[in-house]
Amino acid sequence: MTKKVDAKLILSVLAAGLLSFCGVIVETAMNITFPVLMNEFDLNTATVQWMTTAYLLVVAIIVPISAFLKRRFKTKTLFVTANLLFIAGLVIDATATAFPILVAGGVVQGLGTGIALPLMFNIILDWVPDNQRGTLMGIGTLITAIAPALGPTFGGIVVNNMDRHWIFILLLPLLVISLFMGIFSIRQATPPVKASFDVPAWLMVMLIFVGFTFAFSNLQHLFNNPLLVCGWLVSWG
Q1: Theoretical Cys-Cys bridge with 181: which of 15, 30, 39, 56, CB 3.0 to 4.6 Å?
Q2: Is 32 part of any domain?
Q3: Nearest Cα to 102, choosing from 91, 87, 114, 86?
Q4: Could you tell me if residue 50 is inside a domain?
Q5: Which are the contacts of 97, defined by CB distance < 8 A and separation ≥ 6?
Q6: Domain count of the chain?
Q7: Rounded mean pLDDT of 1-6?
């Protein structure tokens, strides 16, 4: 396989980077909407935070299996799956009229983002020559790293001038552009293989993440009900 930086490689990096960018910006933008969501759905602070906590929890559960997914499935298949999942999550949240549905949409987005985040770097490592890898890695990191800086501003502008639904609606065109760019440009470096997957270990990691998340989210009840927090920590951790 000859490694060179050509137009298709640049487009594939941009496509995967744009998907990761949207995944980060939607999470940071939603932090700005907490007061709006609390007023709209009559929620307290601890409950409304599950909008982003559930999303980040799913991302944290999916990212550790990225190496298995890369070996088992084609890169383009993973990209299209991640993109369609994220689009589905945006549509769910854009049309949600109840908080549980809003959280469910965030979970679907988390599935897409968890698959997407390692893809850009996998593409760079697979196709970029060693002497140019650092430059492409820097550009790829910049695409994702700028999202947390833009997210709160984006969310604030949308909430102040339109409606929270538009946070998701305005991201849809970017995802569609990313999807078509990826379908056109992403190539397969090595053929997929039937790799084994350690399901018990992954389930254990998932339970530990969930357990610690519930435990720390209930720290405010430590003095009232210490068994609740300790139970989650011991049972799941």
Answers
A1: 15
A2: yes
A3: 91
A4: yes
A5: none
A6: 2
A7: 67
Q: How far apart are CA 179 and CA 167, in angstroms?
A: 19
Q: How is residue 162 written in tokens? A: 């339109």
Per-chain mean pLDDT for the chain:
82
In a domain, residue 167? The reply is: yes
Q: Are 233 and 130 within one domain?
A: no
Tokens representing 224?
């009232």
Domain range holding 229?
A: 198-237
| 224 and 133 in a common domain | no
User: By percentage, how much of the chain surpasses pLDDT 90?
Assistant: 16
Taking the mean position of all CA atoms in its chain, how far away is CA 164? 19
Distance CA 53, CA 59 (A): 10
Per-residue pLDDT at 233: 52
Which string of DSSP letters, residue by residue, matches the chain?
Answer: ------HHHHHHHHHHHHHHHHHHHHHHHHHTTHHHHHHHHT--HHHHTHHHHHHHHHHHHHGGGHHHHHHHS-HHHHHHHHHHHHHHHHHHHHH--SHHHHHHHHHHHHHHHHHHTTHHHHHHHHHS-HHHHHHHHHHHHHHHHTHHHHHHHHHHHHHHHS-THHHHHHHHHHHHHHHHHHHHH---SS--------HHHHHHHHHHHHHHHHHHHTGGGTTT-HHHHHHHHHHH-
Taking every pair of C-alpha atoms in the chain, what is the biggest distance, in angstroms? Answer: 64
